[in-house]
Structure formats: C-alpha cells, structure tokens
Amino acid sequence: MSTHDDDYRTSGTGGGSLFDDSAYSTTPTSLIDEVEDKPAKDTSTRWHGGLDFGLLLLRLVLGGTMGAHGLQKLFGSFGGPGIDGFAGYLQQLGFTGQFTLLSWITALSEVVGGVLLVLGLFTPIGASALLGVTASIVYVKFGGGFFSAAGKGFEFELLLATAALALLFTGSGRIALDVNTPWRRKPMPFAIFGLLIAAAASVLILTLFR
Questions:
Q1: 126: exposed, middle or buried (Cβ count in 10 Å: 0-12, 13-18, 19+)
Q2: How many CB atoms lie under 10 A from the CB of residue 16?
Q3: Could you tell me which of 65, 66, 180, 184 has the C-alpha nearest to residue 124?
Q4: Tens digits of per-residue pLDDT, 82-101?
C-alpha cells in the first residue's frame, strides 16, 4: 500500500516511512500488540471517487489547454502563430538564437505532455514536460509583473505550472490508463525525479537560448 492505495489511513502516531502502512495506523501500538485482529480502518480518510473525478478534471483542462497551445505553435491551429510566428515571439521575450529549434521543442513538449495528461498515461512524464515549459515562461516573464492585463505578466503561466506540479505529486487518479502502474500508486519517487528533470530542462533551455 501507499498514500495512494484506496484504503490508506492518516497517521495518528507519527514517524514511519512515507510509504510504510504502519505510519497510517490509527490504532495505538499497545493495542496492536495485544489484539491479533486487523485494526479497524478509518473510512473517513479513504481514497474516494471524488478525488479521482477532481484529478480527471484537472488533467483534462491542463492537458487540453497546453495541447491546444502546442497545436497553435505547430500548425497554426485555432488562430495560432505557427512555428515561424512563435519564433518571432521568442525573440521578443529576449531569447537570443535558435528560435525555430526552441519553437519546435516548446510545441512538441506541450502537445505530447498535454496528450499524456488527458489520457492519464505516463503522467509523470507529461506533467514534467508541461512543468518545464511553463516554469521557463514564468522565469522569462517574471520581470513584467504578476498580472497579465498588459500581456507581460506571468499569472497564467504560474497557474499552469502549479497545476502541472500538483499532478506530478498526486498522480493521475484511478480514471486513467496509469491506474495499475507504480507511479500511480506510489507517485512520490517519480514526482521527485520528474521535478528534477523539469528543473534541469528549464535551466538548460534558459542557459543555451537566452
């Protein structure tokens, strides 16, 4: 079991590993030693369908939004700028070279990451890809202030980055193709690895192209 197993319980005793079932027992240790029976479960903290539905909504909206932005860049869909138009926008943001290559990297990351999140397939990879893109944009726009009314703020990208980060740590939920995978049941190790990959990718992009 893990923090994502369907009948997990919150800790009443403290201590223990993050993925250690004993850390979530609500029965005192002395009673466990005295009673042979399995302790009664605290059903008030059980993983339930509402959490799965909420995570599905988050995946669909984030993945769909980012995927649509990627299609705007790749093919000019939905009135988008296409690769060449987005390359010009990157130049306005202060990037100094290889605009076309960076446009392809950004667009493909958004499309692939968005599709993976919508399907709930390899969720850590999809969330990491979108987190890397959005975190980079937040950094680039940071000097323009928080609010985006003037087109320079980073509030929208910060919201997207936070949603991607949240999904990285929560996993896809059970309404997903990832339902029986280790990264759905125990997302923490994969989340930490994905976070490191997203951070490294952002630093690399900002170092090479800005």
A1: buried
A2: 13
A3: 184
A4: 999 999 999 988 898 899 99
